[in-house]
Write a structure and sequence with these properties.
- The complex is a heterotetramer, with 1 copy of chain A, 1 copy of chain B and 2 copies of chain C.
- Chain A is built from 26 helices and 28 strands.
- By secondary structure, chain A is of the alpha+beta class.
- In chain A, β14 and β15 form a beta hairpin.
- Chain A is globular and about 85 Å long.
- The termini of chain A are far apart.
- Chain B is 21% helix and 26% strand.
- Chain B contains 5 helices and 11 strands; from the N terminus they run βαββαβαββββαβββα.
- In chain B, strands 2-1-3-4-11-10-9-6-7 form a 9-stranded mixed sheet, sandwiched between helices. In chain B, strands 5-8 form a two-stranded antiparallel sheet.
- Chain B is globular.
- Chain B starts with a strand and ends with a helix.
- Chain C is α+β, with helices and mostly antiparallel strands.
- Chain C has a single domain, classed as 2-Layer Sandwich (Mth169, Chain: A), CATH 3.30.1280.
- Chain C has a 3-stranded antiparallel sheet.
- The longest helix of chain C is centred in the last third of the chain and has 16 residues.
- The two termini of chain C are 13 Å apart.
- The mean pLDDT of chain C is 93.
- Classes of the chains: A alpha+beta, B alpha/beta, C alpha+beta.
- Chains in contact: A-B, A-D, B-C, B-D, C-D.
- The interface between B and D is small, with 6 and 8 residues.
- Bound molecules: adenosine-5'-diphosphate and magnesium ion (MG).
- The site of adenosine-5'-diphosphate has 18 residues of chain A, from β3, β17 and β18.
């Protein structure tokens, strides 16, 4: 078939890109070759709009074993143990078919982790849905949650944390980001770089079907009215087969037979084979007649583009084929030698004894287009001057109840009780805390993990927002008593061809990078999802940060539930009462403008590290970071969890009490301290120049604020716990 | 004391069970589902998970495994068999236990702590447990126990209902029933009381840093019977 | 040839899925719905040309695997 | 009256259940089995006496709830 410009454009290539292909090849590609180019030059695989910016990311520290560029990042946690982790988006498929889209998203990220030889030990997810009133939201929420649970529960990996947000900017583009954490011996990590010629190339896992053809290009396409027609490309996940694949791969990895291994994710066989060859600067030769197919008469085009799930490509040592096949036979998985490596530096594909593809690997990787797209800076918005009488008619307790039961603040138990969060027997902090925590099996260590995003802050001022998300992740990890180690990021943005969206991307990334450097919190893996846009309406910029921290002795983990009556409660960090962009401004005052709270990296680092010092001395009974909703929401959640109340002391200065209680100033934590440690705690805080305010003293059943009606904890609990349940059943 | 944990393709609580059994003093072995024979054991455990992906009906395909014949012989010999969650489903599918486990009433997977009341303690699984109510953990999609009225009468007459869902005070009623199981049943015994199937996962509750440690009481009791 | 089989819950056996569907349909303003029961449908391709023999084989499959006869009935279409 | 409907996966969509059942049947010495696809079966009782109208109603239910048209087809029996 002769390929012309029109066909190329239908495959998502630009006119100039097609010309470039013809020039490189010095001929027109055939249809299979075009398919391969379109897949590899697609935004999803080539990172053509983001690469120039991603290159600048801070990805180094003493603990980083592998930064960006592999299937996942790897960090050292001592004693030969290493943690492999990454986050990935599955936004577009989840909007089209929430159950399968979310399920295959989880499947995909887990494969990225066990490809490297790690056993997955925890999953996390970050979800953004449209407004609760939008007609699609409820079904999307149910489908996504069941899809995530359906897949990870079946595999048997606990889902230990996550986040769920609602905002109308996601009405036509929900975000489903899935993260997996794996544990590996640091001397037994597997990579995707092919080494050596004449090595057998092995296909294992499920058979190849016609599913997901054009999935990768769909992931980079803007949704339009024709979205319905794109539906048949949705893949169906088979978690059972993935579980077998996981066990089989880990079994094979015990021996020394694997040279390189790569999962078949986006753009399936195409990207996996090209990437492996490209990293090894080798050539690869494939015989597509050997590929196990689920359906009859599949063409090379279909085989190369198929995104059937639960498949892997392995480059094996010569002579190990039999031994390897035995393992995959045991697990009832397909195993086929489909080609070999060579030194041609080309990808050559045969079908029915004919060479159907002949492309130098460099053309697909190095020569892929890269764009330094135009972008626009976002100015810091003017601060809102709230008028005194706006607050006059308001009552603290009414505002608190409303906020506690608002979609973005309410407890998400309805979601995480549908996830198996205790399997593997090492979950010591369940969802619902600041970070999920799992023990490193058989040791004293534990890993804390959290996923965070702050789309409102990022939308208002991307640079500040980008910094803030990293800080939020850092605080969540500190709050459970872990030492933050590294982060992964999932950059969900709109259309990069628009200057505003590209600017949001560039500036968020700059903010992320600044914070990452300052906090020595390197970025070791990630993923970019552009074109989250429907009918010209883009999402708010939503970089999601997945952070992990190390707890050296798990017995010393901190939780946020208030422990004991008569203990003292202290707020670390200064409260200025920043209400712009706060939940309070949105939910109570209906005000959406203004700048996000300022991020001071020095304070973040100093206060976080001081909290860990206090913790080392066993001075902290409970802790929680202050984030959305401010001090009053934070202390309410601590009280609800601990089933106790607090008597809040007089406010020191003449501050507006709404600003004090609901302001969202950054770099703050609430800690609970025993009376007998109070002086020593204050000494340490003073020595480290940490500003603090005493908030009050723990008591029974009520939150008491001067000149305000008492607030019963049981009542607050009801407000906090029921929104989502009621929403889902009604 | 020797125990064996049978692994089916898709089992995923096998390791957790191994850890628990060893912690409480069993010499445990892992046995692959198509081994012709089970090694010498005092206790066989069918662990939780999603054998064969829960496809067709939970436990149905595992119920056709090669090893099931030796399992049946083992049961006849009077030694102990314990099925947790998916293991329970396999035991009902093979007919070693009465009834079936259907989708949870709310059609949602449920992972949370529950209380269970010991209904029959004259068997080797619960005999010396002092507490009447235990806090255990469930994690399942299909735990809604069902059997016909006739069968229900039979298992009641034979005192085969081992445990029921309840509240912290031991009150069994619909409110404390997480999945819609008939008579709040959380676990049943066979007629001879040497086979127990239960939905809760005691192996996830074996130290105080986890969701709780009442699972320890359960394992210690079984082991005690062999001392 | 292809044989189709249906497996349904016996009368009197609780059907949580059917019930939930019925409730959802009602709430979607399908007020006409009185009762929903959900079952399984199988499309089975066998290497047997004789229809009678093929059906007999599928019947055997239902007996031995596809249906749990304690709670389910089957029917070859 | 009672209307029966069947919901099946579209041609080409992976059917993990069917695949597992097929493998199990094969290993149970049903060597004749070539392929199994699993679907859902619904028995729906509606308060409508006219068959044509009843079927139309059930068709609407399939469209709106019973079938996931992204990956499934339906058929009224
Ligand atoms: N935002 C990002 N930050 C850091 N690394 C990134 C980012 N986006 C992508 N990467 C890195 O680029 C590589 C390719 O990513 P991706 O195509 O998503 O992986 P995969 O092929 O496994 O799906 C990975 O090593 C990933 O860690
Ligand atoms: Mg990968």
């Amino acid at each position: 078939m002769v390929v012309n410009e029109k066909i190329a454009i239908e495959h998502g290539l630009k006119k100039e890109e097609f010309e470039k292909i013809c020039n490189l090849l010095k001929r027109n590609p055939n249809i299979t070759e075009l398919a391969i180019f379109s897949a590899m030059w697609n935004e999803h695989c080539s990172y053509k709009s983001s690469k120039v910016h991603l290159k600048t990311l801070n990805s180094k520290s003493k603990k980083v074993i592998q930064g960006p560029g592999e299937n996942a990042g790897v960090v050292d946690i001592g004693d030969d143990d290493a943690i492999v982790f990454k986050i990935e988006s599955h936004n577009h498929p989840s909007f089209i078919e929430p159950y399968q889209g979310a399920a295959t998203g989880v499947g995909g990220i887990m494969r990225d982790i066990f490809t490297m030889g790690a056993r997955p030990i925890a999953n996390l997810n970050s979800l953004h849905f449209g407004s609760p009133q939008h007609k699609k939201t409820k079904n999307l929420l149910r489908g996504v949650v069941q899809g995530i649970g359906g897949y990870s529960n079946c595999i048997g990996v606990p889902t230990i944390a996550g986040q769920t947000c609602f905002d109308e900017s996601y009405n036509g583009n929900i975000l489903v980001n899935a993260m997996t954490i794996g544990l590996v011996n640091k001397n037994k990590i597997f990579y995707s770089k092919a080494v050596g010629i004449n090595k057998p190339v092995i296909y294992v896992g499920s058979k190849t079907g016609r599913d997901g053809i054009h999935g990768a290009s769909m992931a980079s396409a803007i949704f339009d009215e024709k979205i319905e027609e794109k539906k048949p490309t949705v893949q169906v996940g088979d978690p059972f087969t993935e579980k077998l694949l996981l066990e089989a791969c880990l079994e094979l990895m015990v021996g020394k037979s694997i040279i390189a291994i790569q999962d078949m994710g986006a753009a399936g066989l195409t990207s996996s084979s090209v990437e492996m060859a490209s990293k090894g600067k080798l050539g690869i030769e494939l015989n597509l007649n050997k590929v196990p197919c689920r359906e009859e008469n599949m063409s090379p085009y279909e085989i190369m583009l198929s995104e059937s799930q639960e498949r892997m490509l392995i480059i094996l040592e010569n002579g190990k084929e039999k031994e390897a096949k035995k393992i995959f036979d045991k697990w009832n998985l397909d195993f086929e030698i489909i080609g070999k490596t060579n030194d041609s530096k080309k990808i050559e594909i045969y079908f029915n004894n004919e060479k159907t593809v002949d492309i130098p690997i460099d053309f697909l990787s190095e020569s892929a287009p890269q764009y330094d797209r135009k972008w626009k800076k976002t100015k810091l918005p003017q601060k809102i001057k709230f008028k005194k009488d706006e607050f006059k008619s308001l009552k603290i307790n009414d505002c608190l109840k409303k906020i506690l039961s608002s979609p973005n603040i309410c407890e998400k138990r309805w979601i995480w009780e549908q996830y198996d969060h205790t399997i593997m027997g090492d979950t010591i902090q369940k969802p619902g805390g600041d970070a999920g925590v799992v023990r490193v099996h058989g040791s004293k260590k534990a890993i804390a993990a959290s996923v965070d995003s702050s789309a409102n802050y990022c939308y208002s001022h991307p640079l500040t927002g980008g910094k803030q998300v990293v800080c939020e992740s850092w605080r969540n990890l500190i709050s459970v008593g872990s030492e933050p180690i590294a982060i992964t990021n999932c950059l969900n943005f709109g259309n990069p061809e628009k200057e505003k969206n590209m600017g949001e991307f560039v500036e968020c990334l700059e903010g992320i990078n600044d914070a990452s450097k300052y906090l020595e919190f390197p970025i070791v893996s990630g993923n970019v999802s552009f074109y989250n846009e429907t009918k010209d309406k883009g999402i708010k910029p939503t970089p999601t940060i997945g952070g992990i921290g190390l707890i050296k002795e798990y017995e010393k983990m901190i939780t946020m539930d208030i422990k004991k009556i008569n203990n003292h409660v202290i707020v670390l960090g200064k409260t200025d009462g920043h209400l712009d962009q706060s939940i309070f401004a949105k939910e109570i005052l209906g005000e959406k403008k203004g700048p996000p709270p300022e991020v001071n990296l020095f304070n973040e680092k100093n206060i976080g590290q001081t909290l860990l010092k206090l913790h080392k001395n066993n001075f902290i009974e409970s802790a929680h970071d202050v984030s959305l909703g401010g001090i009053i929401v934070a202390i309410s959640k601590m009280c609800i969890k601990g089933n106790k109340g607090i008597k809040i002391g007089k406010l020191k200065n003449l501050m507006n009490k709404f600003e004090f209680f609901f302001g969202e100033d950054q770099a703050r934590y609430i800690i609970e301290v025993k009376e007998e440690n109070l002086d020593k705690v204050q000494d340490i805080l003073n020595q480290n120049s940490v500003h603090y305010d005493k908030l009050g003293i723990i008591m029974k059943n009520y939150i008491e604020i001067e000149n305000e009606p008492k607030l019963s904890i049981d009542e607050l609990k009801n407000y906090n716990n029921n929104w989502i349940k009621n929403y889902m059943v009604n | 004391m020797k125990s064996s944990v049978i692994i089916f393709p898709g089992s995923n609580c096998d390791r957790d069970m191994d850890v628990a059994l060893k912690k409480f003093g069993f010499k445990n072995q892992m046995v692959w589902h198509n081994e012709p024979e089970i090694p010498k054991s005092d206790l066989i455990v069918l662990p939780g998970g999603f054998s064969y992906g829960d496809y067709l009906r939970c436990g149905s395909i595992a119920g056709k495994s090669k090893i099931i014949n030796s399992l049946i012989d083992f049961v006849k010999s009077g030694r102990l068999v314990l099925g947790i969650c998916n293991g329970f489903q396999i035991l009902t599918e093979t007919g070693l236990l009465p009834g079936v486990l259907q989708r949870n009433k709310n059609l949602e997977f449920i992972c949370k702590n529950v209380f269970i009341k010991i209904n029959n303690n004259s068997n080797s699984f619960f005999n010396n447990i002092k507490k009447n109510v235990l806090k255990l953990h469930i994690a399942h999609n299909e735990g809604n126990y069902f059997c016909s009225n006739d069968e229900l009468k039979t298992i009641e007459d034979n005192n085969q209902i081992a445990i029921t869902y309840c509240n912290s005070e031991g009150l069994s009623n619909e409110e404390n029933n997480p999945n819609g199981a008939i008579k709040n049943i959380a676990g049943v015994l066979n007629k001879e009381k040497n086979v127990l199937g239960m939905m809760p996962h005691p192996e996830r509750m074996i130290d105080k840093y986890l969701s709780g440690d009442d699972g320890s009481i359960f394992f210690e009791n079984i082991l005690g019977n062999f001392k | 040839m292809k044989i189709k089989a249906i497996v349904t819950l016996k009368e009197g056996v609780l059907d949580p899925q059917g019930k939930a569907i019925q409730q959802t349909l009602s709430s979607m303003s399908f007020s006409e719905v009185k009762k929903v029961r959900q079952g399984k449908y199988f499309d089975i391709e066998v290497n047997i040309e004789d229809e009678k023999k093929a059906k007999a084989k599928v019947e055997e499959m239902c007996e031995k695997l596809l249906a749990n006869l304690v709670i389910e009935d089957y029917k070859i279409l």
